[in-house]
Amino acid sequence: MPTSIHSPVMSDHVDPRIERTQAAILQAAEELLMEGGPDAITHANVAERANVSRTTVYTHHPTREELLRVTVESRRPDILIELTGDLRSDLLAGLNGLAKDLGDEQRKRIFATVLERSHHDPAMATVRKESVGRASMLFTGLLRRAVEEGKLRSDLDADLAMASLVGIFFFKRFLLDEPVPPEMVERIVDDFIRTNAPG
After folding, report:
1. With a threshold of 0.85, does the pTM exceed it?
2. Which CATH entry fits the domain spanning 79-195: 1.10.357.10, 3.90.79.10, 1.20.120.1730, 3.90.550.10?
3. Of 158, 138, 190, nearest to 1 (Cα)?
4. Measured CA angle at 32 (ends 28, 126), to 5 deg
5. For the chain, where do the domains classified as CATH 1.10.10.60 start and end?
6. Range 11-72 classified under CATH 3.40.50.1000
7. Using DSSP, how many helices (H) and how many strands (E) does the chain show?
8. How confident is the prediction along the chain (199 residues), in pLDDT tens digits per residue?
């Protein structure tokens, strides 16, 4: 069963007018985010920029949290992981997806905005918690299953291990401003598996 960090569910039969309206709302919200930060994303501002009624924006995104969430995740690549049961393959798939996500300059700016603003904006804090929570569940789930199956040492703390793995990517992108290429992802995964192999 595929598991995803971000896998939007779209109906097969969406009215083209609704699709156009949704696209206009999303584009307006993205522009406002990049121009004025999260404070600029209100139902009124998005409605005015998208040239639709405020009621229409509320119909598609009833709360500010929902409006912020779809805006923050709008340019996030669809990371669909077909779990194979092979620890190395599954970690490579998930971490290459994260590297691709962080490698996009606009996504990097959005990440930075979310992290900074979530400390004093309750709506943005909710968006951060949900987004990070989905990724954390994927990685910690993979690691816990590997521990149960005897592929990793039995005393491994999945939460700490996940933070250690993912932290490398954020350190490289936000502090060193360097990308994480696929060959580096392979080295990170192989080092992690070797270091944490059962004794």
Report:
1. no
2. 1.10.357.10
3. 138
4. 100
5. 11-72
6. no
7. 9, 2
8. 344 444 343 445 567 788 888 889 988 988 888 788 788 889 999 999 999 999 999 998 998 888 888 887 765 554 446 678 899 999 998 899 888 888 878 777 777 888 888 888 888 888 888 777 777 888 888 899 999 999 999 999 999 999 889 899 989 988 898 989 999 999 999 999 999 999 7
